[in-house]
Amino acid sequence: MAFEGLADRLQQTIKKMTGKGKVNEQDVKEMSREVRLALLEADVNFKVVKDFVKKIRERAVGTEVMESLTPGQQVIKIVKEELTLLMGGEQSKIAVANRPPTVIMMVGLQGAGKTTTSGKLANLLRKKHNRKPLLVAADVYRPAAIDQLKTVGKQLNIPVFDKGTEANPVDIANEAIEYAKQEHLDYVIVDTAGRLHIDEQLMGELTQIKADLNPDEIFLVVDAMTGQDAVNVAESFDQQLNVTGVILTKLDGDTRGGAALSIRAVTDKPIKFAGMGEKLDELEAFHPERMASRILGMGDVLTLIEKAQENIDEKKAKELEEKMRSASFTFDDFLDQMEQVKSMGPLDELLGMIPGANKMKGLKNVQIDEKQIVHVEAIVKSMTRQERQDPGLMNAGRKRRIAKGSGRPVSEVNRLLKQFEEMKKMMKQMSGMQGGKKGKRKKG
Ligand code: GDP
């Protein structure tokens, strides 16, 4: 999970402060030291760490904490506010041109995730903002890159403009913009060439494209997992191109978080989006405050709700509720429900968005084994339609067949059947309780 190490350490440090009725300078000094170490260990730029700790310290020894009735809470508030500011404060929006199409130029080193992110961004603009994007293949040095973008476009059913490897990138982009106007497409996302390292020729070409297209946004795509290298790359690109925003990719695999916490302070450019996985819907708008909240173990309910709204079919959810009430919930419904929750993202990440989940005894350090879910699914899918609708049919022979079909032991099949029965019993009890209440209300 993103920021795992930092989150653990900061939360431990903060825990020591929460219960305190009084906070003295020594406490603040100690806390500052721990925060400093935690940030350095998370690979945050040392100068950024120095400034950050200085600010926290100044505020924590100031009157707002010392005179507060809950100084511990006050310190947490300060850390959260400063973390939010460090990552850019407000969420930064994407530009809209006065006259469409809005032109977005994507730049970055090879392997950072530029092509994938171009596709993800087009997908997000269409899905969340109701826009009609056009992807443009302007990396003329690598035929593979053009093919990759076309594949992405096909998967998403989003048009890709390309002219092979013979044309020049500026001409391609200009023609693409004309094409977008004709077709009434309102966002043009230009996937430019990347290299393994920054070189003059690349920068020269990108500068020329920029001068010619005058894009509304220049997004620099950097790989969060490369930590301070990502920050250095961002600095160089920004010096030459004056980018308008940064997209951090692979934040899902970045357990430290150094790039996310340093880039804004070093380049003064906002992080606009974060890549949270390889799939084409795994790009999130970057909300500094929500991120700070996740790092401090306070959860991120807003993102959780948004994910649920995007991925859970409301009609199905209502039907499911009805079935739960009437206790006519079957294994088919069970599968459905699992699919919907799974589509929201990896479970441990979802858990991280629930406030206080990390403090709950049963949930602390719980390793959610996604494999187990796959096993459960395999078992249910090995049942016949009839069995799924009416688990009462189950006998030893059927259980053996299901075990064989799913490649799981009979004991596991038994366990699932038992859990399912218990779940139904519980639903019955709950709906009974609700029915009772309703009845009473009617009488009264
Ligand atoms: P490009 O050379 O910059 O165009 O990079 P690609 O788009 O080809 O991406 C390089 C690799 O990074 C691919 O395997 C992508 O699937 C992977 N990738 C891109 N973004 C993310 C992300 O947010 N999370 C993860 N886990 N992988 C990503």
UniProtKB/TrEMBL annotation:
CDD domains associated with the record: SRP_G
EC number: 3.6.5.4
Recorded GO CC terms: signal recognition particle
Domain-related comment: Composed of three domains: the N-terminal N domain, which is responsible for interactions with the ribosome, the central G domain, which binds GTP, and the C-terminal M domain, which binds the RNA and the signal sequence of the RNC.
A Pfam family that the UniProt record links to this protein: SRP54
Keyword Zinc-finger: no
Keyword Nucleotide-binding: yes
Coiled-coil residue spans: 298-325
Gene this chain is encoded by: ffh
Top enzyme class: hydrolase
Name listed for the protein in its UniProt record: Signal recognition particle protein
Biological source species: Amphibacillus marinus
Alphabetized SMART domains for the sequence: AAA, SRP54, SRP54_N
The reaction(s) this protein catalyses: GTP + H2O = GDP + phosphate + H(+)
PANTHER family, alphabetized: SIGNAL RECOGNITION PARTICLE 54K PROTEIN SRP54, SIGNAL RECOGNITION PARTICLE SUBUNIT SRP54
Signal peptide positions (record): none
Subcellular location: Cytoplasm
GO biological process terms held by the UniProt record: SRP-dependent cotranslational protein targeting to membrane
